[in-house]
């Protein structure tokens, strides 16, 4: 458990403001360091073979201007690709995604560290849905990205012994998600969120990612 919680603590989380083609957006920002060369991290976030091992299987044209599909997570277009430092994609998800183009974008920035490591920054900008965001706050996407970055850390370290779906259901995975939801609550408060609304959003996010075992 300690190693998993150390990975959770390695991430700096910020809720901010930004913009996407559809208008003003809120952002969830995750920053951390990976003990891997920048070329290795770049390959892990752009190679279809490696993406499926920490995120989801991906199909499509993985080049600038190409369109892709992430199994069960949505689809989008590659907007910027500057190896090995910057990747930006549109990110559409949900049953009505095609009716809301330009509402969500993900940008990943990499920088080489001083000792052969890599500084990693992910910014997900989304137009705030008037019903969804007040219910879940930034943790809705933030917890998912925390789980993804944990899986990426394991891939880069050569440790993929546990299936991601099984990890999510394990006591260790459930505790990770609980603490991640609370951490995004702290980021929401730091961004000026109303304490009562933030507390309710953390509770709703926790129930989403850590449902009662009897309901599975």
The helix/strand series, from N terminus to C terminus, equals HEEHHEEEEEEHHHHH
Percent of residues in beta strands: 25-35%
Number of helices: 8
Widest sheet: strand ordering: 1-2-8-7-6-5-4-3
The share of residues in helices is 40-55%
Basic shape: globular
Largest sheet: 8 strands, antiparallel
Q: In whole angstroms, how far apart are the ends? A: 23 Å
The overall strand count is 8
Spans of 5+ residues with little confidence (pLDDT < 50)? none
CATH class category label? Alpha Beta
Query: CATH superfamily assignment?
Result: START domain
What value does the average pLDDT take?
91
Spatial extent as radius of gyration: 17 Å
Q: Which architecture name does CATH use?
A: 2-Layer Sandwich
CATH fold title:
Alpha-D-Glucose-1,6-Bisphosphate, Chain A, domain 4
Number of domains: 1
Q: Give me the secondary-structure category.
A: alpha+beta
Organism: Kibdelosporangium aridum
Protein name: Activator of Hsp90 ATPase homolog 1-like protein
Pfam family, one: AHSA1
Domain Activator of Hsp90 ATPase homologue 1/2-like C-terminal: 35-128
Describe what this molecule looks like in 3D.
The radius of gyration is 17 Å and the shape is globular. The protein is of the alpha+beta class. It starts with a helix and ends in a 7-residue tail after the last helix. It has an eight-stranded antiparallel sheet. 41% of the residues lie in helices and 28% in strands. The protein has a single domain, classed as Alpha-D-Glucose-1,6-Bisphosphate, Chain A, domain 4. It has eight helices and eight strands. It holds the Pfam family AHSA1. Belongs to the AHA1 family. This is Activator of Hsp90 ATPase homolog 1-like protein. InterPro entries: ASHA1/2-like_C, START-like_dom_sf.
């Amino acid at each position: 458990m300690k190693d998993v919680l150390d990975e959770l603590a390695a991430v700096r989380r910020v809720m901010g403001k930004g913009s996407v083609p559809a208008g003003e957006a809120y952002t969830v920002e995750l920053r951390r360091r990976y003990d891997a060369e920048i070329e290795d991290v770049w390959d892990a976030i752009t190679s279809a073979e490696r993406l499926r091992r920490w995120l989801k299987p991906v199909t499509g044209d993985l080049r600038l201007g190409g369109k892709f599909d992430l199994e069960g997570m949505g689809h989008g277009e590659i907007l910027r690709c500057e190896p090995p430092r910057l990747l930006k994609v549109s990110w559409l998800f949900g049953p009505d995604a095609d009716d809301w183009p330009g509402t969500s974008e993900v940008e990943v920035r990499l920088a080489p560290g001083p000792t052969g490591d890599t500084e990693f920054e992910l910014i997900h900008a989304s137009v705030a849905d008037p019903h969804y965001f007040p219910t879940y706050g930034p943790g809705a996407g933030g917890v998912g990205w925390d789980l993804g970055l944990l899986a990426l850390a394991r891939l880069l370290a050569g440790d993929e012994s546990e299936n991601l779906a099984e990890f999510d259901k394990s006591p260790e995975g459930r505790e990770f998600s609980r603490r991640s939801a609370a951490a995004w609550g702290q980021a929401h408060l730091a961004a000026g969120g109303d304490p009562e609304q933030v507390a309710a959003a953390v509770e709703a996010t926790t129930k989403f990612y850590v449902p009662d075992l009897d309901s599975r």
